[in-house]
Amino acid sequence: MTSDSIESTPVNRVLRKLRIFVASPRDVADERASIATIIEDLKALAEYVGVTLELLDWRRVVPDLGRPEQVIIDQLKPTMWDLFIGILWHRFGTPPQKTDPQTGKEYLSGTEEEFRMAYRLWQQYKRPRVMFYWCQRNPPFDDLDPVQFQRVKNFFAAFAPDATHPGIFQTFNSLELFERLMRQNLTRFLLDYSEQVNQRVVSPQEVQASVPTVPDNLPRRAAFFGREKEINKVMCALGPEERGWGVVIDGIGGIGKTALAVEAAYRCKESELFEAFIFVSAKQKRLEPSDIKAETRAATTLEEFVNDTAHALCRPGIAQLPGEDKRSALLDALRTRHALLIYDNLETLTKEEQEALADWLRFLPQGSKTILTSRRRGGEGALWLRLEKLDWETARKIIQHEAKRDTRLEKKLQCFETRWQELYDTTGGSPLALIHTLGLMRVRITLTFDGALEMLKQGSGRELNLQKFIYEEARKELGESDLAALNALSFFIPSATFEALMAVADLSRTALEAVLERLDSLSLVNRELGEERYSLHPLTRNYVRDNLLTDKKVKYEMGMRLARYWVDHANQYGGYKLDSYKTFDRLEAEWSNLDAISQWLWEVAAVKGDGAGNNNAARMLTDLAGSLSFFLSYSGRWDEYIKLSEKAYFAGCSSNDWRNAGWRAFDMAWMNYKRGRIDDTESWLEKCIKSWDREGTKGDQATALRLGGLIATEKKEYDKAEDLLQRALDIRRSLSADREVAYALNSLGLLAQERKQYDKAERYFHEALELARKIDDKSGQSIYIGNLGILAIVRKQWSEALKLFEQTLPLAKEVGRVELIADVHYGIARVQEAVGQPGDALPLAQEAVKIYQRLQHKDMERAQHLAERLAKILKNEKR
Asked: Which among 468, 394, 385, 381 is positioned nearest to 430, based on CA atoms?
């Protein structure tokens, strides 16, 4: 049976009237009101089975005198009811001042009185049919009456098989679920009537033909991965409890805004949240592996959005109306059908039209919602959701999915599975960039995994299509100040403070504030939550470098401003000051930027042979390395310390900055000494001395002598070590440099301990400690107390050693020297092993090993042996 045959039902056919009575208190008014809409939707099916449905509503009762409930019953006679529908939530209702004639008890509510009458009629005549529903939503705290709620519970308890009115009721927790249940049950009610009275079974095809068509023009559902947090936010905003008109999803092109909107729409369809699903897109182009293709149909104006929506709702006449009338008529149409509108790629509209659309959506009828996707922020009265990059696990699933679709691509990717994350990192978590790159690998036989990575990094070849597709529209809106800010921000990794960006972009505070607000609204700049920091998506950074920052002079001047800013920053928060450790957190927070600018300075310095291409950059690099020296040593960034110091040494030599070159060579020598590489230590110390011979001080000479003494100690050349260290001490004392005097005394203490002159070593360590306390050198104190602890271990004074280590640990943690923290853990573990506490010792030994391994410290093997010994002891104890 087709819909045509249903529509051809004779107009003069006599239809039997089926009357539906609804009983409920005031707290379920929305559910009660929705029944009328459902009855209207079932009109065609009702007529097909030969009936018409009439809703009996007490509001249609003619005013009269008497007990109100009795007036309703007298006019809406229970003997005429064919179907009784009852709905309760947390209220039972108002007592009707009437006694139940059978039980002699007062009715507790009008709903109860109406139900008792329907139930007794059903017992006698099997009519009316009774359907009861219980709302399970959490009751509102401020409107909850415990007595009323208990009466509701008691009433439903009486549906039990051995209770007063046995039967089955249904529960729901949302208006949507109630409407779904009601629609299903009323449909079944009509079908049962046709089967029992007309002796005719209505087929599913006939039922379907009588159901109003659901407008739905959603794009085909694609595989969707991850984004569960974002999906949940969207679904909450689209739910009936949320009063806003919907969701605005913004973000850079290719970040997955449309995919998220479409997936949310399908989930709404599965949950039956809406009765219509309308998709209108302003997207004019699509990116394919071969090229950028034009879309055949795109709405580019507000009027076209409204027209396309009207056509999708099967209301083409609306599109013929003039402007304001058209929008009003569309709102009226949406009042009769709860719809989800997806308006995609809104940035192609003018700013004025976007604002007009947002204003129009504020009047969207309750029950309808909208999802807007745009690269521009906006949408007052809606949830705003900035879409960020995919997480790695989601990206991995996408790669697996795409590989399974094509054997050739799967073979290309299989050999590089351990490097898939490189592809993810290079695309910056952009699903479009990721899928586009995989598509290129699929269609271009010669494009390898490494070739695809290089293409993404360099922005070459067909990859330019990706940048053009993502940024072409936004580029049209950028002014000179916007370009300056974007160019400057492209130098920062991963982000910049407002002050840093202002210095590099060379913009005033007011101008930069306006620019950042505009760039943020265009989704070109991300503002980090909780602090005033700004960043670029990796693809945006590449685009800026490839397409915007093309003037070499501008690029150089901006880079030098940035370098000067970071050199000053490092000097302010780093350096050789006694309390510099207190501001090392400022350097830690900006390490990525500091590292990036050091590499940039090295490239610009262009050191070759004995000269530098840019002496200014070379000198700035040596200054930067000097300011970061103690920070890198304390924080345990020894690999970075070595790389930077080596570059800075050659930069210093090439720019004739011999004193700084000497210090950077000393840093190289010192790090190699800490790692137990004595040959490399001697080699770098020789370079250090040669540099200081050209331009050095007496203090520099003492520094070189002290390290020479430590090298001699390691080589067991004790007399030579004594001579070198005493000379260093004499120079430092002559200069009244208490901090360096303490260093020399400590080195002499280490030599005395090595020579088993323990009393002498203890005197040196105490003298060094006294000086450190005098000048409040916390780092020195932790070193000297720790060395006294090691000396106590050598003397087998276990309790004294533990006491000393317990003193030095908080000092080491306060100054943040990870090497000293490892030394203390190692020392305490040795004490605990000696006193028979391997269980307490093992975790500390393992922590020391972990730090020593990262540092490649010379004590790493000894700590490893200790940890292995302790583990073996514990294993044997368990046996």
From this structure: 394
Rounded CA separation 694/563 (Å): 28
User: For residues 247 and 237, is the Cβ–Cβ distance under 8 A?
Assistant: yes
Residue type, 327: R
Encode 627-671 in three state secondary structure: HHHHHHHHHCCHHHHHHHHHHHHHHHHHCCCHHHHHHHHHHHHHH
- 618 contact partners, CB below 8 Å, separation of at least 6: 601, 605, 607, 612, 651, 652, 654, 655, 657
Rounded to 5 degrees, what are φ and ψ at 40?
A: -65, -40
Alpha-carbon span 773 to 760, nearest angstrom: 20
Strands 129-135 and 246-250, how do they pair? unpaired
Sign of torsion over alpha carbons 592, 594, 597, 599: negative
Distance CA 873, CA 871 (A): 5
Amino acid at 222: A
Of the listed ranges 509-518, 685-694, 856-865, the one predicted with least confidence: 509-518
Which of 112, 117, 118 has its CA nearest to residue 131? Answer: 118
Quick one: tokens of 37? Answer: 């809409």
Between 522 and 548, name the one with better pLDDT.
548
For residue range 704-738, what is the model confidence (pLDDT) as tens digits?
Answer: 999 999 999 999 999 999 999 999 999 999 999 99
- Tell me which residue of 598, 643, 639, 638 sits closest to 621, measured CA to CA: 598
Tell me which of 5-19, 55-69, 314-328, 619-633 is least confident.
5-19
Contact 90, 144 (CB under 8 A): yes
Supply angle C-alpha 488, 489, 494, rounded to 5. Answer: 145
pLDDT digits 0-9 by tens, 31-63? 887 787 678 778 888 888 888 888 887 767 788
A 10 A CB-CB count for 695 gives 15
Range ranked top by mean pLDDT from 115-124, 387-396, 713-722 = 713-722
Give the residue from 202, 181, 157, 164 showing the smallest Cα distance to 85: 181
Which residue(s) pair with 370 in the sheet? 246, 341
pLDDT tens, residue by residue, 600-648: 999 999 998 777 789 999 999 999 999 999 999 999 999 999 999 999 9
Is the pLDDT at 424 greater than 60, yes or no? Answer: yes
Q: Is the peptide bond preceding residue 128 cis, with omega within 30 degrees of 0?
A: yes
Determine contact, residues 91/25, Cβ cutoff 8 Å.
yes
**Torsions phi, psi of 55, nearest 5?**
-90, 120
Pull the structure tokens for residue 587.
């350097």
